[in-house]
Amino acid sequence: MVDLGRRLKELRKKRKLTQQQVAERIWVSKAMVSAYELSIRTPSYEVLIKLAKLFGVTTDYLLGLDEVDDKPHQLIDLSNLTDEEQRIIIDLIENMKKHHN
To answer: What's the pLDDT tens digit per position in 5-21?
Structure first.
C-alpha cells in the first residue's frame, strides 16, 4: 500500500489541491488525508472510491494494481450521453486499442 500514499500525493499536487481541499471533498479530516499520503492509514472502501472519483482514476491505480507505465487510466463520464453515443465512444476506444496492439 506504499504506492497509495505516493499516488495520492502526486494526484493532489498535479491538481494543485491542498490536503484540506481534498479532505473537504471526501468528507474526512486534513489529518486523515495526511495519514493516507504518509501511508500511516489506509482509507476505507468508501473513501477509496471517493478519492478515485475525485481524481478521475481507477481504484486499481490508487492501490498500485494498475501499473501500465505507472500512469493512471483516466475515467470518462459517459452518463449524460445516449446509449447510442456511449456505444460509439466505446467502439472507438476498442478500435484504437486494437490499432495500437
So the answer is: 999 999 999 999 999 99
- The one-letter amino acid code at 75 reads L
Residue 36 lies in a domain: yes
Q: Per the structure, how many domains does the chain have?
A: 1
Residue 100, in any domain of the structure: no
The pTM for the full model equals 0.68
First to last CA, the chain: 31
- CA dist list (Å): 48 to 2, 26, 33, 55, 89: 14, 9, 11, 11, 27
Burial class (CB in 10 A: 0-12, 13-18, 19+), 12: buried
- Please report whether residue 44 resides in a domain: yes
List Cβ neighbours of 42 (8 Å cut-off, separation of 6 or more): 1, 4, 36
